[in-house]
Design a protein that fits this description.
By secondary structure, this protein is an alpha/beta fold. 36% of the residues lie in helices and 25% in strands. The protein is built from 15 helices and 19 strands. The strands form 4 sheets. Strands 6-5-14-15-16-13-17 form a 7-stranded mixed sheet. The two termini are 37 Å apart.
């Protein structure tokens, strides 16, 4: 257990990207915390993710960019949308130079584990308690008592629930209810660079759009691998575990008839992971007393705007500043944090949800209209409210 300097005893439940980011920004703000992580070792499962300027600027302030850029790949080529059947280009947006000019930072892609390691570099090692599965949070007037699976307990003045979509802490603040299944599942695989076609090694995020499905790939791990994630109807599949797998044949069956470059990547990736996407309606409140939520525990969102990890990092920066500026009034600090974040994250939940239907239109007039809109759009500029946002500056203003 860490030795705490005078100040509130802050417990962070969950040692994923959001939980470690909370600890990192609290450390930067001069506060201390204990991160309670249920796993015996810190390891982020999954595959790749996009880190846009709104998150990069916050990572830079943590002083971890040297760690980040060792494995992150800048998306200098940019974003491109292609048609499912023949790969015809629907839209291309170059990011190199433009992203920096508009938002002051580049956009990157990275493996989740490498982003976790990046954020961990800003957290004192003795702040992290592994093998600590929180089973209940008991609110008290001056804080909370945390209960763990091994029978241990911990008192805290402030509790931050960063324990994901199945959050135990969330159940303390909201009526316990299981998340709903979205009807969509995701296949994921990582293709070694030596097995990937040159087409997939370009520093680009490529999205292939087709009826009821879409397929995404981009390089990660310093360009040594290609991340592949594809979305398809789930049917009766409801397994949400990151460790669940499918067969290559099942993956191929979902994308039968698609451009050969798509099916070649499926083959090159080997046995894919498969998980069902979960859905939760936005919360109206996520702070009560001295307990609050962060990241997926507060606002899980579909990955179609690639903002899940970024919003966790924004949450962390905002929360740390609120607590640092109102250290003697934690309840007010948590209310301020919630007020600063909830409108933005709810909007992102909603637009991410809507994007599913847009990406998966069947061939026909609506799909043709969508493609025409893509060809004439500028998503980098149109989504300036996402990428230009500065979570810390927004709090000051």
């Amino acid at each position: 257990m860490p030795t705490h300097v005078p100040g509130p005893r802050i417990a962070v439940v969950g040692g994923g990207i959001g939980g470690l980011a909370a600890a990192a920004f609290l450390h930067r703000a001069g506060l201390t915390a204990t991160v309670h992580e249920q796993a015996p070792a810190l390891a982020e499962v999954g595959a790749g993710l996009v880190v846009a300027p709104n998150a990069v600027r916050l990572l830079r302030r943590l002083g971890v960019m040297p760690h980040f850029t060792r494995q992150a790949v800048p998306l200098d080529w940019g974003w491109e949308f292609r048609r499912w059947a023949d790969g015809s280009v629907l839209s291309v947006e170059k990011l190199s130079g433009v992203c920096e000019r508009l938002y002051g930072e580049r956009t990157y892609v990275i493996h989740r584990a490498d982003l976790l390691d990046t954020v961990k570099a800003a957290v004192p090692g003795d702040w992290i308690r592994l093998g600590a599965r929180c089973t209940a949070v008991e609110p008290r007037p001056d804080g909370a008592l945390l209960h763990f699976a091994d029978g241990s307990r911990a008192e805290a003045d402030i509790v931050i629930g960063a324990d994901g979509v199945h959050s135990v802490v969330r159940n303390t603040l909201a009526q316990p209810a299981p998340p709903e299944y979205s009807g969509i599942c995701a296949f994921r695989t990582i293709v070694p660079a030596h097995s990937a076609p040159d087409f997939a090694l370009r520093p680009a995020q490529t999205l292939w759009l087709g009826p009821g499905r879409h397929f995404v790939h981009y390089p990660i791990a310093g360009g040594s691998a290609v991340n592949v994630v594809a979305f398809a109807p789930a049917g009766d599949y409801t397994d949400e575990s990151w460790s669940a797998t499918a067969t290559i044949e099942e993956f191929h069956a979902e994308f039968a008839g698609w451009d050969r470059r798509v099916t070649d990547l499926i083959t090159a990736g080997g046995i894919p992971g498969r998980w069902a996407l979960l859905d939760r309606a936005p919360l109206r409140h996520w702070s009560r007393g001295r307990i609050t939520l962060l990241g997926d525990a507060a606002h899980p969102m579909f990955p179609f705007f690639a903002q899940g990890a970024a919003q966790s990092i924004e949450d962390a920066a905002t929360l740390a500043r609120c607590l640092a500026e109102s250290v003697d009034d934690p309840e007010q600090a948590l209310k301020r944090y919630e007020s600063a974040r909830i409108e933005r994250t709810t909007r992102l939940q909603q637009v991410s949800h809507a994007r599913r239907d847009i990406n998966h239109l069947p061939d026909g007039p609506e799909q043709q209209a969508r493609d025409a809109t893509l060809a004439g759009s500028d998503p980098l500029v149109n989504n300036g409210w996402i990428y230009g946002h500065d979570a810390e500056e927004a709090l000051i203003s």
